């Protein structure tokens, strides 16, 4: 039958059933249950951002408010079950419900819950992520000091988990570890940037490379060049995705064994490149959303065999208690899409040896096979805990890879050019054998002059703190052309008024400030950790960086007359706050509610303590800080830091809409607004509504010029805001929040160039 104009996809695939029945990956007697689970829609799952101080508040809000309202609810004849926490995820921070994503989006009864999920996801407080996808980062055992590489990172939900783990201690603004998130697809890199930006971390860098040949990076250690080896690597490779049939129903129609056969070589090359870049003692997690041993155990067995003891599979059976898993298998066969089976490489005819490779077969030597401990791999089956299908293997590196025994010693000066001494993956007949290429004497003589000139350019750029796109012609750029990353010189006069205005602590790492422009006025100031600064400065000629750093200051043309041309940016306030010693105003919870629901409220509306604090303070950007009172347990019990602006007679918060809604929810203010009825929208087309929503987000960063127009605006908004925000209806609060930025635009006599032309990274988000 036809539903909505499209034919219903039949959830049947004879070849799929024949293949997996023969391999025996499903325990005896569970086949029907396994197939029935695959035909059911995947339940919606969500994860609360763990490192945020208000994670407990969100969890409390979810359990006491939203989950309670789902009780005894029926949607399309289906009873809504109370959401359950995932038993194996720490601290009750991950939940699942029997509701599919489609029902969540479409059902009017669930509109309130859906709005909450969308808004909190935009803020970075919640990630809507498939349950099995949460497993690999947990098994990496990340600590805040770890250097982490995520090899195939897009769309970024696992990357977000890794960033959270780096920031386990919220009191440390700059963990010494970092995440380098890579993806081969230029467009998907911007999806990755969007995911990472929600978490506002100075310790994440997004790069764009082929994971199977991602370059060796160098870092400066006490004046010496050293190769960067990673403590943790996440290798979530491209796969056939037959474990995702519950959400990607196209797989039912398109599945053949050919997909796995074609991907095996690439998966092995990526995994090989990963272990090459892993530090000794480091941990790499290899994962796929496929159930096929050709993409899973065959890749791991081949990697272990050619590592000659340098790698071992970690026993993680005691980790994530509560997670039901199947052990890895040691025997499997290879099948072509025509249904023909092969048990050994020697059985494969010559005309099939391009499709089937020796590394796809199990190891025949029983002793070798036993030493590999393939049963330590994990396979997650959909019917065991109502999830998708998944495979995970955890590898530990005990010594350098055999082909990397002659690694450069740490005291040697490494060449600047990527081609002089580099590890390359060569796709040979039995998989992916890697060698170290060293230039011959003749090649060195030929390239010596060119190399010296290139080194001079590179050294000059580093002195100027400029990290631009790679100059080497070998590294052809594609997709968007990125702006350079320019670090502020130590003696830059731009920084002196900022330091004075905000009374920055002497320990403030000003060397980590960067901009995205070499010439003209600097519009935005970003910040990275000192470890990422080291990576950026030493690798700009070989690495295509898409994005890094968080925005900490934005230029405000009118601010100069108050002593500082830059106002604080909300994205970076939690990173900056520990270093700021001036212009901090402590506010009570009632003040926070006024700030978040009213545009430019008069100072007279605030508590007397707040009025006293700002009375003698100069106009301009300020920090608004709320500290919870332990003696008032019913009030919000997590600290809040907001960016604000003090005018002549008013005070306002510069906070994006979804973040405003988040804080109000945590304070118990009802912010849900039901969709307006069709008759209310007669005068507005859908395009106009969308345009306004888009405009609301875009104008959030518009500079404030309210010191000239405050009386006019206050006259306009005074009456509207006279009602207490707590007593206002949810509809009124939502409307006010949506209008905050619109009225901000009216209050400005100009839109700065920054507002019109946001930097490239923001546009591409």
From TrEMBL:
<dbReference type="Pfam" id="PF25378">
    <property type="entry name" value="PUA_NSUN2"/>
</dbReference>
<feature type="region of interest" description="Disordered">
    <location>
        <begin position="696"/>
        <end position="765"/>
    </location>
</feature>
<dbReference type="GO" id="GO:0005737">
    <property type="term" value="C:cytoplasm"/>
</dbReference>
<feature type="compositionally biased region" description="Polar residues">
    <location>
        <begin position="743"/>
        <end position="752"/>
    </location>
</feature>
<keyword id="KW-0808">Transferase</keyword>
<feature type="active site" description="Nucleophile">
    <location>
        <position position="289"/>
    </location>
</feature>
<dbReference type="InterPro" id="IPR001678">
    <property type="entry name" value="MeTrfase_RsmB-F_NOP2_dom"/>
</dbReference>
<protein>
    <recommendedName>
        <fullName>tRNA (cytosine(34)-C(5))-methyltransferase</fullName>
        <ecNumber>2.1.1.203</ecNumber>
    </recommendedName>
</protein>
<dbReference type="InterPro" id="IPR057285">
    <property type="entry name" value="Pre-PUA_NSUN2"/>
</dbReference>
<dbReference type="GO" id="GO:0016428">
    <property type="term" value="F:tRNA (cytidine-5-)-methyltransferase activity"/>
</dbReference>
<keyword id="KW-0694">RNA-binding</keyword>
<feature type="compositionally biased region" description="Basic and acidic residues">
    <location>
        <begin position="696"/>
        <end position="719"/>
    </location>
</feature>
<dbReference type="InterPro" id="IPR057286">
    <property type="entry name" value="PUA_NSUN2"/>
</dbReference>
<feature type="binding site">
    <location>
        <position position="210"/>
    </location>
    <ligand>
        <name>S-adenosyl-L-methionine</name>
    </ligand>
</feature>
<keyword id="KW-0949">S-adenosyl-L-methionine</keyword>
<dbReference type="InterPro" id="IPR049560">
    <property type="entry name" value="MeTrfase_RsmB-F_NOP2_cat"/>
</dbReference>
<feature type="domain" description="SAM-dependent MTase RsmB/NOP-type">
    <location>
        <begin position="34"/>
        <end position="398"/>
    </location>
</feature>
<dbReference type="GO" id="GO:0000049">
    <property type="term" value="F:tRNA binding"/>
</dbReference>
<dbReference type="Pfam" id="PF25376">
    <property type="entry name" value="Pre-PUA_NSUN2"/>
</dbReference>
<comment type="similarity">
    <text>Belongs to the class I-like SAM-binding methyltransferase superfamily. RsmB/NOP family.</text>
</comment>
<feature type="region of interest" description="Disordered">
    <location>
        <begin position="403"/>
        <end position="433"/>
    </location>
</feature>
<dbReference type="InterPro" id="IPR023270">
    <property type="entry name" value="RCMT_NCL1"/>
</dbReference>
<feature type="binding site">
    <location>
        <position position="183"/>
    </location>
    <ligand>
        <name>S-adenosyl-L-methionine</name>
    </ligand>
</feature>
<dbReference type="GO" id="GO:0005634">
    <property type="term" value="C:nucleus"/>
</dbReference>
<keyword id="KW-0489">Methyltransferase</keyword>
<keyword id="KW-0820">tRNA-binding</keyword>
<dbReference type="GO" id="GO:0030488">
    <property type="term" value="P:tRNA methylation"/>
</dbReference>
<dbReference type="GO" id="GO:0005576">
    <property type="term" value="C:extracellular region"/>
</dbReference>
<dbReference type="Pfam" id="PF01189">
    <property type="entry name" value="Methyltr_RsmB-F"/>
</dbReference>
<dbReference type="InterPro" id="IPR029063">
    <property type="entry name" value="SAM-dependent_MTases_sf"/>
</dbReference>
<keyword id="KW-0819">tRNA processing</keyword>
<feature type="binding site">
    <location>
        <begin position="152"/>
        <end position="158"/>
    </location>
    <ligand>
        <name>S-adenosyl-L-methionine</name>
    </ligand>
</feature>
<feature type="compositionally biased region" description="Basic and acidic residues">
    <location>
        <begin position="753"/>
        <end position="765"/>
    </location>
</feature>
<keyword id="KW-0539">Nucleus</keyword>
<dbReference type="InterPro" id="IPR023267">
    <property type="entry name" value="RCMT"/>
</dbReference>
<feature type="binding site">
    <location>
        <position position="236"/>
    </location>
    <ligand>
        <name>S-adenosyl-L-methionine</name>
    </ligand>
</feature>
